[in-house]
Write a structure and sequence with these properties.
Helix content is 75%, strand content 0%. The protein has 514 residues and is mainly alpha-helical. The chain folds into 4 domains: 82 residues; 142 residues, no CATH class; 196 residues, no CATH class; 45 residues. This is U3 small nucleolar RNA-associated protein 20 C-terminal domain-containing protein.
């Protein structure tokens, strides 16, 4: 086949990328993928730009996830088979996309072009890392422009930080946003940065060490960003950076020898900075829908941060601002001065959070307690034993008081039971007793049980007195309790209908009575 006819055939094939139906576009992309694998390398080099740009447009603009995945595969196979000279032209094109000028009319960059640059760079880093390293595009272009894009998007956000935490976190799993909005740009550049961090950690670490402003932006703004994908990628970047900076510790070593000597790192060596990022990560546990990947990332970095803070200075004055806590319970269970160190404040905060967070977050906190128990010495674990027992015993007693416990266990699979808060609480209690010994554990465990029981009795007595002294307040509480019971019964009926496969029938029954 002559080059002219071959070009005509390729152009005809590429024109069908705009086909109306998804199945047609998928078929064209599959054909292009097969051609990318079968064509000789000289022909791929000759037609690289002809094939690459239309597929890139399909990667960025196609509404179908399947088409976008196939487009990414086509781009990857083309970049892997292309020659070094042709890829150099591609990196020049990427450079122009990253450095696209700001629109003078709107004073912002092109969102669509920024997403395109980030996604193609991610594929190129994965397909041909040697070309990326040789071109020096990452330290000179990608990372500085990533910082610029994120700063612009954060400034463009209309809500303040407090409004984001209070208003948007509630329905963060169902956030509806417009196409190519700020969160998409932030996610695209951060997802690219995650891949760069895996392939070229030295570039990311050096840039984060030199640019404290960008690191603070990640910690203060993006860790608690409303969209869950942004939060996940941010935690992945920070987790990799902190693990490489702090160094891995072995679980069977003592706390005094857990931290290996590392290079002098200005940001990581500051206890205030480590405490700041720890408190930001802890806030993620308060989200109503904690995704499993985010849960794994939190468990991967938070124990090491807590151990690092504990080792840096055990007698440091509390660095955090006060959060709303039950001071009466604090004085009874922990004693005065229980939160006078950063690590003590963290343990107290985690202990209180168990009361109000979801079951998934409770399981995460208990796994964190187990990791901290393994990392610290037995003498240090005993100092914070009451903090952990306060949360563990409460969950144990709450599960013991649940009605219809047999039905609850019958509807749970083995994997769900092993990851349930009550099962993990029992496991952590056994681990603590084994770690510090029964002589120290049993008296404190009994003390916590008695104090929790006494607090509940005092609360019941106070509410009985309130029924006489403030009847309106008691009536409002009773009304709220009845509404919660009604909501729980309705949820149980819906769950039963789903398990029995009669959801449609139950909906018809409800509609007939309304």
């Amino acid at each position: 086949m002559s080059p002219k006819r071959r070009t005509q055939q390729l152009r005809f094939l590429l024109q069908n990328l705009n086909y109306q139906y998804e199945s047609g576009r998928v078929g064209v992309l599959q054909a292009l993928y097969a051609l990318g694998l079968q064509l000789p390398v000289p022909i791929v080099n000759e037609n690289l730009q002809l094939l690459l740009l239309p597929v890139v447009l399909r990667l960025v603009n196609d509404e179908s996830k399947t088409c976008r995945e196939h487009a990414a595969q086509v781009i990857q196979v083309l970049l892997r088979r292309a020659g070094a000279q042709e890829l150099q032209q591609t990196t020049i094109l990427l450079n122009s996309w990253w450095n696209a000028p700001i629109d003078p009319a709107t004073n912002v960059f092109d969102y669509r072009l920024a997403c395109t640059a980030a996604q193609v760079t991610l594929i190129l880093v994965e397909a041909r890392p040697e070309i990326i390293e040789k071109s020096r595009i990452i330290p000179d272009v990608v990372l500085p422009r990533t910082k610029s894009f994120i700063e612009t998007c954060c400034l463009k956000t209309s809500h303040s930080y407090e409004a984001l935490v209070e208003d948007i976190f509630i329905d963060s799993a169902h956030v509806e946003v417009e196409e190519h909005s700020c969160w998409q740009v932030i996610f695209s550049v951060l997802d690219c940065m995650v891949q760069i961090s895996d392939k070229f950690p030295k570039y990311v670490d050096h840039y984060l060490e030199e640019c404290d402003v960008f690191l603070q932006l990640l910690v203060n703004e993006l860790v608690v960003y409303p969209h869950p994908w942004v939060r996940l990628t941010t935690i992945q970047i920070l987790s990799g950076y902190l693990k490489r900076s702090i160094g891995h510790r072995k679980a069977d070593t003592s706390s005094s020898s857990m931290i290996r000597p590392t290079q002098s790192l200005r940001w990581v060596d500051s206890q205030e900075n480590l405490f700041q990022i720890t408190t930001q990560i802890i806030k993620l546990l308060t989200l109503p829908n904690l995704s499993h990947p985010l849960q794994l990332e939190i468990l991967g970095i938070l124990p090491w941060l807590c151990a690092r803070i504990f080792d840096m200075n055990q007698n440091t004055t509390l660095l955090a601002r006060d959060f709303e806590t039950d001071e009466a319970d604090d004085m009874i269970l922990y004693g005065a001065g229980a939160k006078q160190t950063s690590f003590g404040w963290i343990m107290t905060r985690l202990s209180y959070m168990v009361r109000a967070v979801s079951a998934q977050a409770q399981s995460t906190i208990f796994k964190l307690f187990a990791a901290i128990t393994q990392l610290l010495d037995a003498s240090h674990v005993s100092d914070y034993l009451i903090h952990m027992l306060n949360a563990l015993v409460r969950v144990q007693q709450e599960q013991d008081n649940v009605k219809e416990k047999g039905d609850y266990l019958a509807n749970k699979s083995a994997s769900e039971l092993e990851d349930s808060p009550r099962f993990l609480a029992n496991q952590v209690v056994e681990l603590l007793e084994k770690k510090i010994g029964s002589d120290v554990f049993v008296p404190k465990y009994t003390f916590v049980q008695q104090k929790i029981h006494q607090l509940r009795l005092d609360r019941k007595t106070k509410r009985k007195q309130e029924l006489v002294q403030y009847p309106e307040r008691a009536a409002r509480r009773k009304l709220h309790k009845n509404e919660q019971k009604k909501f729980g019964k309705q949820a149980k009926k819906r769950k039963f209908a789903v398990l029995k496969g009669i959801t449609c029938r139950s909906k018809r029954a409800n509609s007939s009575y309304s």
